[in-house]
Amino acid sequence: MDDLTFIGKILIVEDDHNNSAAMRDILEDVNYYVILAHSAKEAKAAIDSQNFDLVMMDVWMPGQDGMSLLEEWTDSGFTTPIVMMSGHAEHKDVVRAIQMGAIDFLQKPLHDLLPLVRKLLNKQNIISMEQVISGINFDVPLKTARNIFERQYFNHHLEENDHNIAKVAELAGLERTTLYRKLKDLGIDRK
Question: Where are the domains of the chain?
Fold first, then answer.
């Protein structure tokens, strides 16, 4: 899978195979990368093996239910946005899920899934960008602010990609030799 060809990675945790397959088909048709998990155990394995932009999780599942998994992930510092889903939820379940860290609660059957996902991911991207950009002092000269941003950018991608220079160069749209010079100029250890 080439992450650059997808507009977002979504984990759907849903024990109903027909429902999860229908959601996956809708999202994959417009170029989202979707992984299906049919239990909490499968969801944990997926989260351990890769990063996602969004998790959509059913409340009621056999074995560990979605609410207890939400609580477990929230308590462990999990930062990927989670949307809870249920066809039988009561108001108290919705309130509890939001208090526990879910960013939204959707009633099944889901109608207009695509606009909902686009809205949720766009909102998260804006929040993430504002958090990173707000860490820069805008009173410094432009070159200094750019260097601060570039250090954060390259350090982030080096960490995320196990210091694989070829991968980071591809992500940044740079030739490897240009990236090597850039890292040296910024004082970044390539490890």
Answer: 3-130, 135-186
DSSP state letters, 64-120: S-HHHHHHHHHHTT--S-EEEEESS--HHHHHHHHHTT-SEEEESSPSSHHHHHHHH
Both tokens of residue 26?
């809708």
Name the pTM for this structure.
0.62
Q: Among the listed ranges 4-8, 14-18, 42-46, 153-157, which one has the minimum average pLDDT value?
A: 4-8
CATH architecture for residues 135-186: Orthogonal Bundle (1.10)
Question: Residue 132: is its pLDDT beyond 60?
Answer: no
Closest by Cα among 86, 85, 38, 83 to 64: 38
3-state DSSP percent of the chain in helix, strand and coil, to 5: 55, 15, 35
Beginning with the edge strand found earlier in the chain, give each strand of the sheet holding 9-13 in spatial order.
Answer: 33-37, 9-13, 54-58, 82-86, 104-107
Q: What is the dihedral of CA 103, 82, 56, 64, to 10 degrees?
A: -120
Other CB atoms within 10 A of residue 161 CB: 14
Higher pLDDT, 149 or 4: 149
* Fold topology of 3-130: Rossmann fold (3.40.50)
User: Mean pLDDT of all residues in the chain?
Assistant: 84
